[in-house]
Design brief:
- The structure holds two protein chains of two kinds.
- Chain A has nine helices and 27 strands.
- Chain A has helices at residues 11-22, 60-71, 121-124, 137-147, 162-173, 192-199, 259-263, 301-321, 399-404, and strands at residues 2-7, 28-31, 47-49, 58-59, 77-79, 82-87, 92-97, 101-112, 116-118, 134-136, 154-158, 177-182, 206-207, 210-216, 223-228, 241-244, 247-250, 254-256, 288-290, 330-334, 338-342, 345-346, 354-361, 368-374, 377-384, 393-398, 409-415.
- Chain A is globular and about 65 Å long.
- By secondary structure, chain B is of the alpha+beta class.
- Classes of the chains: A alpha/beta, B alpha+beta.
- The interface between A and B is large, with 47 and 40 residues.
Amino acid sequence: MYELIVVGGGPAGLAAAYAAWESGLQRILIVDRDQALGGILNQCIHSGFGLHRFGSELTGPEYAGRYIRMLQHTDVEVALETMVLEVTADRQVHMVSRKEGYRVLEAASVILAMGCRERTRGAIAIPGTRPAGVLTAGTAQRFVNLDGYLPGRRVVILGSGDIGLIMARRMTLEGAKVLCCVEIMPYSSGLNRNIVQCLRDYDIPLYLSHTITEIRGRNRVEQVVLAKVDERRMPIPGTERVLDCDTLLLSVGLIPENELTRKAGIKMDRRTGGAIVYENMETSLPGIFACGNVVHVHDLVDFVSAESERAGKAAASYVLHKEEPQSQVLELIAGEGISYTVPQKIHPDKVGQTIEIFFRVTRPRNSSRIRVTSNGTLLSVFKREHLAPGEMEHIRLPRELFEKATGSLELSIEEVIG
Amino acid sequence: MTELVCIVCPKGCRLFVDEQKDFAVTGQSCPRGEAYGREELISPIRTVTSTVRIEGALCRCCSVKTDRAIPKSLVFEAVRQLDGVLLHAPIREGQTVIAQVCGTDVCFVCTRDMEREDTYESVYSGLGSRDY
């Protein structure tokens, strides 16, 4: 019997396992389906990771390497090339691998750290033929950076998420011609620095308020049709342009990978696509925690690590102290201008000195106030000069605030005029 | 006056660089941003990341980076220098792949440990017990 089984050996799983070890757990197993620990970081060969966590700018493999080396000084066990098929409410973990066959392992606690996957062509329904050459940006990234294949020579990128921007530069450096990056929204969902150093540095145009309305080609992509969209994101007739290309990369969003979570019967949040969690990252099932992109998609891996360390500590505390079920629960409501919050629920009596609330806003805003209210009473206000849906925000609430709350807490945005 | 977006960290500060006033920078929130703003207009530099072929490892490519930034104008040439390089596993993070990239004193170094395929184990207890 393990004290903790961590499902997923990416940044979330690594940080959670290490924190649990540091907090006193001895029998820990990390299970991952890939051949190496590190998850998607291994294919993210660009730099920009670790400024918050390690105070230096690392590449993805280097960031993963730091955690892997930290784990080398522990007795944490690892099962690679092992697929978890099911996690039950009583924490039996079903898994299968070529080496060990089908196994059911029991654990006193489980941390779900499966990460997320990319939205595909099917998810955004682009009309046209079904040729080869349409792939997600992350798949292309894997082909180029791990397998050494260049998946195309003339490339159009749909979506301006960070992976798409990073791949625009990567494909260019490897000798492909990237014609443009197309974004349906009037703003990019990627980081500003990536627009500068991945597109502008290589003179790749970014078309905002545009989309791809058709894919053409028999066996391989031959053309795509580009069109402007109106405020309702509908293509404007007469604005179409035909682009000759052999590849369309999609960078159109990420979906937390929660098949195991749903099958376990854990309560989900439709807005995040992940489990509903408490402040210690515990799900609706006692002893089962979740952290990282499987809970909500983060912009920075540093915050994934921080969140996962909290989950690891909480799992250790659950196993070692067998805590009483908490009586009082405060709901955190996403009000005006807020698309979601994590955590969604709080045990006020479990909160330490402060608690960090992560959230995203529904649209870009200038000078704004983030209001925390309870039953109409204003409890706290935070100011921000700039807010954008692409940038995860967080505020830190002190313990005292929860004592003043009557009923649920609500977070909302109020723009400051003038 | 030139407006720039700082690329030093993911924050992306909006910088204003005044060429008339000895490239004075405003809008930054750290000293690194100030240095970037000046440098970007005087002689822009970039850290380059790419991959090289590796044999005997689990995957065909090993990730590399320049250990410091190189002039932006040399980026393509630097990446081309990696084309003929072939590594053999095992390799260690930080190991030099090319010294003196494009005649500068900058090196391409590996950014990942890669063990040999024939020592690979999928199930093991304790990372520390692994023999690389």
